């Protein structure tokens, strides 16, 4: 017992000192977030559906959605692999980003998902506004780094319905209702 008490007496001040040092060593100031890409969303008929701004982080990529004129309710949003938005069905945008490598679709798919096009659902209010930030994990990781502006580009797609995050091929997301090709931010 005496040894334990002695040990406690020695360790406690050491721990306190270590805490004080840690408190004094603040991490270096991070640069403010700067967008890496931006897109304007439109329906096949040309209706303005708002904007999406992309930010790159140390582990992944964040998309800030500022939507307008969306039908009320849940909507799937995805990254599609070809930077081309041709109506009426926007099939020109191809399938999901990295789908051929990561395979099954679905953030909640325990059988091999998700692919790199899978994102969180967005809720649109009755007035048509849809404001959200959705996050693509691992988008900055070596081997799967996502460049929204490289090659034939990448599209941000809005679907008619929410994504169940499991079923194939696109989680019951329904038709593609608005599309935007990412461009360099102004
Ligand atoms: Cu999609």
From TrEMBL:
Its EC number is 1.15.1.1. SUPFAM superfamilies: Cu,Zn superoxide dismutase-like. Residues 1-22 form the signal peptide. This is Cu-Zn family superoxide dismutase. It comes from Brevundimonas lenta. InterPro entries: SOD-like_Cu/Zn_dom_sf (IPR036423), SOD_Cu/Zn_/chaperone (IPR024134), SOD_Cu_Zn_dom (IPR001424). Belongs to the Cu-Zn superoxide dismutase family. Keywords: Oxidoreductase, Signal. Residues 51-181 form the Superoxide dismutase copper/zinc binding domain. GO terms for molecular function: copper ion binding; superoxide dismutase activity.
């Amino acid at each position: 017992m005496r040894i334990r008490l002695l040990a406690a007496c020695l360790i406690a001040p050491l721990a306190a000192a270590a805490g004080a040092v840690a408190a004094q060593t603040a991490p270096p100031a991070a640069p403010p977030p700067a967008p890496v890409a931006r897109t304007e969303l439109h329906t096949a008929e040309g209706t303005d559906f708002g904007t999406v701004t992309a930010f790159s982080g140390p582990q992944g990529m964040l998309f800030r959605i500022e939507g307008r004129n969306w039908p009320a309710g849940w909507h799937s949003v995805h990254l599609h692999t070809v930077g081309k938005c041709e109506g009426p069905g926007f099939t020109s945008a191809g399938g999901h980003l990295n789908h051929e490598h990561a395979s099954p679709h679905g953030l909640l798919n325990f059988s091999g998902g998700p692919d790199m096009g899978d994102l969180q659902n967005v809720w649109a209010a009755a007035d048509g506004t849809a404001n959200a930030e959705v996050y693509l994990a691992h988008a900055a990781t070596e081997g799967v780094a996502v460049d929204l502006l490289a090659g034939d580009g990448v599209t941000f797609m809005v679907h008619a319905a929410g994504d169940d995050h499991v079923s194939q091929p696109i989680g019951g997301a329904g038709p593609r209702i608005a599309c935007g090709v990412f461009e360099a931010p102004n």
